[in-house]
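Support request from a user on the community tier.

User writes: "When I paste my C-alpha cells into the form, the page sometimes reloads and wipes my input. The last time it worked, I copied everything first. Here is what I submitted, just in case something in the input itself triggers the reload:"
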C-alpha cells in the first residue's frame, strides 16, 4: 500500500457547538467519500497515538502546553478565543491530531508507505508557539516538521499550505528556522490578516485576492512554490491540506474546484519523487462545506495513492 490513512475516534468527539463550522461531521465527510469511491480499502489504516510532551515542546512553550491542559473542562465548554472552544474531548483529540502527523512521519521515513493522509481535527496551522487561535490548539504540521528534523535527523523539510487562510502559526514557529520551508497560498486581506509582507527566503507567502480562482492558484504554485522547492530540495514534504478555498465553501472567496486539489497534489508529488524519496505527510486543516470537503480531499488522496 502506498498511502496511510491516520485518524482517531476522539477527533469526532471534539465539538465546538452545533453552529460551529469546524464540526465533527468533517471527518465523516472525507471518510464517506473514500468509502463510497472504493478507495478506502486501499489505504493502510492507522489509529493515531497521542503526541508526547517532548514532541510538542519542540514547537510550543511548556507553559502554553500546561495552560491548554489545565483549561480543558470536565463538563461543558471553555472558549480559548472567540472561535476556538474546548469541550472535555478537545485536549485528548488535539493530542491525537498532533500524534497522527508524527506517526505519518514515522511511517514514511520507515518506508512502510510512500505518503500519509491524517484525517484529523482540531486543525493546527493557526496555532502559534504559545497561542491557540482560529480553531487550532497545537500546530500539528509544525510538530511533525520539528520531529522529522530532530528525531529523524533530516536537514530540510518543506511544508506546502493551500488552506485559504494564512498559516500564521506555522510561519511564526519557523520564521527564523531555515531548515523548514513554508510555501503558502491564502486569501488576503483575510483572517488572520498577516502573511502578505512577512516572507523571507524560506517562507514563500503568495497572497491571493478575493475572486481569484483556479488559474491564479495554479500560477502561484508554478511560478512561486515550485522554483522555491526546487532550490530548497526538501528531504520530506508536509502538506497543510485545507480545502476551504473551494468555490462552494462560503468561508472564503477564492474559487477553487475539486480538480485543483488533485492538480496541486500531483505537482507536490513530483517534487517529493524528485527530492524526498516520495515521502509526503498531509494533514487536514480547513474545509467547511461538507460535500466540497469530501470531494476535494478525495481528489487529494486519490492522487497521493496513485490509484
Ligand atoms: Zn482555513
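"...and here is what came back when it finally went through:"
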Amino acid at each position: 500500500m502506498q498511502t496511510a490513512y491516520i485518524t482517531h475516534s476522539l477527533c469526532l468527539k471534539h465539538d465546538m457547538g452545533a453552529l460551529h463550522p469546524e464540526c465533527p461531521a468533517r471527518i465523516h465527510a472525507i471518510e464517506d467519500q473514500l468509502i463510497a469511491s472504493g478507495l478506502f480499502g486501499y489505504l493502510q489504516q492507522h489509529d493515531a497515538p497521542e503526541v508526547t510532551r517532548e514532541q510538542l515542546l519542540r514547537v510550543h512553550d511548556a507553559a502554553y502546553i500546561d495552560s491548554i491542559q489545565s483549561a480543558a473542562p470536565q463538563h461543558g465548554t471553555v472558549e480559548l478565543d472567540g472561535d476556538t472552544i474546548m469541550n472535555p474531548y478537545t485536549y485528548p483529540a488535539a493530542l491525537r491530531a498532533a500524534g497522527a502527523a508524527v506517526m505519518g512521519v514515522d511511517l514514511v521515513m520507515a518506508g512502510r508507505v510512500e505518503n500519509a493522509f491524517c484525517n484529523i481535527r482540531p486543525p493546527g496551522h493557526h496555532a502559534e508557539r504559545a497561542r491557540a487561535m482560529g480553531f487550532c490548539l497545537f500546530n500539528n504540521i509544525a510538530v511533525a516538521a520539528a520531529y522529522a528534523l530532530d528525531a529523524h535527523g533530516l536537514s530540510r523539510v518543506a511544508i506546502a499550505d493551500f488552506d485559504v487562510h494564512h498559516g500564521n502559526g506555522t510561519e511564526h514557529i519557523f520564521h527564523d528556522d531555515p531548515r523548514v520551508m513554508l510555501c503558502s497560498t491564502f486569501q488576503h486581506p483575510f483572517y488572520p490578516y498577516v502573511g502578505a509582507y512577512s516572507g523571507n527566503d524560506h517562507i514563500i507567502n503568495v497572497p491571493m485576492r478575493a475572486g481569484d480562482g483556479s488559474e491564479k492558484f495554479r500560477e502561484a504554485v508554478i511560478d512561486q512554490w515550485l522554483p522555491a522547492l526546487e532550490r530548497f530540495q526538501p528531504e520530506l514534504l508536509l502538506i497543510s491540506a485545507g480545502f476551504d478555498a473551494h468555490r462552494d465553501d462560503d468561508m472564503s472567496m477564492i474559487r477553487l474546484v475539486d480538480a485543483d486539489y488533485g492538480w496541486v497534489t500531483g505537482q507536490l508529488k513530483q517534487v517529493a519523487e524528485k527530492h524526498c524519496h516520495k515521502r509526503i505527510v498531509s494533514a487536514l486543516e480547513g474545509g467547511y462545506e461538507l460535500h466540497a470537503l469530501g470531494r476535494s480531499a478525495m481528489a487529494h488522496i486519490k492522487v497521493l495513492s496513485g490509484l
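Agent notes: The reload is a front-end session timeout and is unrelated to the input. Residues 5 and 164 are 23 Å apart (CA to CA). The radius of gyration is 17 Å. Escalated to web team.
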